[in-house]
Amino acid sequence: MKVIKTEIESVVIIEPTRHEDGRGWFAEVFSQRGFADKVCAKTVFVQDNEVWSRGGVVRGLHFQRPPHEQAKLVRAVRGAIVDVAVDLRRGSPTFGRHVAVELSAENGRQLFIPRGFAHGYSVLGDEALVVYKCDDFYAPDFEGGVRFDDSALGIDWRIDPARIVVSGRDRALPLLSGLRI
């Protein structure tokens, strides 16, 4: 696997190696040993989630508060998304900044998002099936979020704003300036 650094330290893109022949290709998309050696030794995943969405959907920006913060490893197994990680670590030199990466079934890329980040994505085509690993279990009493369209974040979701489909819950999330973690 190839690990590619992003503008925010500890948020990395992972490109599994594909072995191709006349039948198609094979890729080891996750190995705890390889992940620990090349990305983060202290992260051990305990839950896998799968989400199907129609085109134009924006999900997020979500996070869990301490003590149930989650690191995530995200990939698109069908379609394409713009995956976004926003740094919410107080005192971080990159607080409020984000990384946005296109993940698709075609490019096979994954994005590792450490604890302390909000996460969201937009669906670029007709549909997307997204699978992600978490290093802590979902704890509804500790969930939080930030508005996807907060101008202070400056996220380009790569969707016409008139076409964006967002849940009422996500539309009601606070702006970064009003966030309490």
Describe this structure in words.
With 181 residues, this protein is mostly beta strands. The chain contains two helices and 13 strands. The protein has helices spanning 32-38, 168-171, and strands spanning 2-5, 12-15, 18-21, 24-27, 47-54, 58-64, 72-78, 80-87, 98-104, 110-113, 117-123, 127-134, 143-145. A hairpin with a 6-residue loop joins strand 1 (2-5) and strand 2 (12-15).
Helical fraction? under 10%
Return Rg in Å: 16 Å
Number of strands: 13
What strand line-up does the widest sheet have? 1-2-10-7-12-5
Shape: globular
Low-confidence stretches: none
Q: How many individual helices?
A: 2
Biggest sheet overview: 6 strands, antiparallel
Strand content: 35-45%
Average pLDDT metric: 96
Q: What distance separates the N and C termini?
A: 34 Å
Summing up helix and strand content along with how strands pair, one would put the structural category as: mainly beta
Concise description?
By secondary structure, the protein is mainly beta. It has helices at about 30-40, 170; strands at about 1-5, 10-15, 20, 25, 45-55, 60-65, 70-80, 80-85, 100-105, 110-115, 115-125, 125-135, 145.
